[in-house]
Amino acid sequence: MELFEKIDNLILLNGNLNHIKLEINNGKLSFFRIAREAHQALYRSMVEALRGSANLSITGRPKDKKRIVKYQIGNKPWQEIHKIKVEDCKFAWRFSDPEPCEEPSNNDENYEIPEMDNYLISFYDLLAMIQTECFMNRFTHSKHISVSDDEIRKLQWLHEAVRNEFEHFIPKLYSVFIPDLIKTSQISLSLSSKLIYESGNVMSTNIPTNLKTDLKYIFDTLALKEKHFEELKKKYNKVI
Questions:
Q1: Which residues fall within 8 angstroms of residue 50, CB to CB, at 6 or more apart?
Q2: In whole angstroms, what is the distance from residue 238 CA to residue 236 CA?
Q3: Taking Cα atoms as reference points, which of 212, 173, 177, 217 lies closest to residue 196?
Q4: What pLDDT is attached to residue 110?
Q5: Where does 96-210 have alpha helices with state H?
Q6: Is 176 domain-assigned?
Q7: What is the pLDDT of residue 63?
Q8: Is residue 100 helix, strand or coil?
């Protein structure tokens, strides 16, 4: 019997999917719990796709509220991106389209090499970063991930009204619309799949062999549940 248990990011991601499968196979599943685990799976997937070899890009406490980043890819001209608002979002945001900029000097605070830190950056920072070539295009075959404004709004709701509510729950009467839980779970897991299998930033040899099969099983189950609740909504609307 081994005395130590191995823990790494992909093992924890695999655990999130296992918890979702347990909920699905439970007699009375909790869509709230499924959405919370899907959120955590997305969080871990974003970290895995962005972490690099030393975790420099996904740790630390950002000092610049404007999130100005200057970068160069290969021999291309220097580019600059910065934080911009997403309509109807109080917390979530995205990076601007890259614009040409001057090559930064050594004392430019927007071109400093991050220091080692054990503080994981926020969900919203990661969500913005996965959409940029600056942070995602680390290899010739790498690519960034597209996330629509509507998906960002839904993910903000998931982070604030489900994940944070779950983590900091104060006893009270609380209810959540199940179709919203299903939809945000689908968005989270779809992005997770793209990050793990399509971004080109995660080594295939490190990915648990059952991950793709589990994702398909969960996607198929959630699609059936979504159809079921759509039919319930139609019946309800006819009644009222």
A1: 57, 58, 126, 129, 130, 135, 136, 201
A2: 5
A3: 212
A4: 60
A5: 123-129, 133-136, 149-157, 164-167, 178-197
A6: yes
A7: 85
A8: strand
Residue 126 lies in a domain: yes
- Residue segments in the chain with a per-residue pLDDT below the cut of 50: none
Half-sphere exposure of 177 (CA within 13 A, CB side): 10
In angstroms, the CA 140 to CA 219 distance is: 30
In this prediction, residue 52 carries a pLDDT of 80
C-alpha distances out from residue 71 to 66, 104, 132, Å? 16, 9, 11
Q: How far is CA 115 from CA 57, 130, 201, in A?
A: 10, 21, 22
Tokens matching residue 149: 């404004």
Q: Residue 213 domain-assigned?
A: yes
pLDDT at 118: 82
1 domain residue, yes or no: no
- pLDDT at position 109, please? 62
Q: How many domains does the chain have?
A: 1
Check: CB of residue 126 under 8 Å from CB of residue 47. yes
- Write out pLDDT tens, residues 145-170: 999 999 999 999 999 999 999 888 88
User: CA distances (Å), 197 to each of 3, 27, 44, 105, 137, in order?
Assistant: 33, 32, 14, 37, 14
Q: Are 38 and 20 in contact (CB under 8 A)?
A: yes
Domain containing residue 65: 9-232
**What pLDDT, on a 0 to 100 scale, did the predictor assign at position 38?**
98
CA gap 169, 178 in Å, rounded: 18
